[in-house]
Design brief:
The protein has 105 residues and is an alpha+beta fold. It has five helices and three strands. The model has no long low-confidence stretch (mean pLDDT 90).
Length: 105
C-alpha cells in the first residue's frame, strides 16, 4: 500500500497536477473543460491526467466522444493511510521525548 501511496505523493508533487486534481476532486471533468480552466494546453492536461491515473488518484469513464475523469477513492484512501502512519509515528516520538524529559527532571 505504501508504494501505491508514494506514487500518489510523487504525482501530486507537480503544481499543475495538484491543481488539476483539486478541480477533479470538486466534480468530474473532461480534458477540454480542464484545459479551458487552466493555462495549460489540452495535450499537457492529458499527460498530467495520465500520471494521476497511473498513480491511482483518478479514474476515467467514456461519455460520448469524451473521457470524464474523477478522483479515485481508493487512491485517496492510500494517501490518507500513509499520512495517518506518519502522524501516528510523529505523535509516538513526541510522547517518547516528553516522557524521557519528564523522567530526567
Amino acid at each position: 500500500m505504501f508504494a501505491y501511496a508514494g506514487e500518489g505523493f510523487a504525482a501530486l508533487g507537480d503544481p499543475t497536477r495538484r491543481e488539476i486534481f483539486a478541480r477533479i476532486a470538486e466534480h468530474p471533468r473532461a480534458v477540454g473543460e480542464l484545459a479551458r480552466e487552466l493555462p495549460v494546453s489540452r495535450p499537457a492536461v492529458s499527460q498530467h491526467l495520465k500520471v494521476l491515473k497511473e498513480a491511482g488518484l483518478v479514474v476515467d469513464r467514456p461519455q460520448g466522444n469524451r473521457r470524464i475523469y474523477q478522483a479515485d477513492p481508493a487512491g485517496l484512501a492510500a494517501l490518507r493511510a500513509q499520512l495517518d502512519t506518519f502522524w501516528n509515528q510523529a505523535l509516538a516520538t513526541f510522547a517518547e521525548v516528553v516522557d524521557h524529559d519528564t523522567k530526567e527532571e
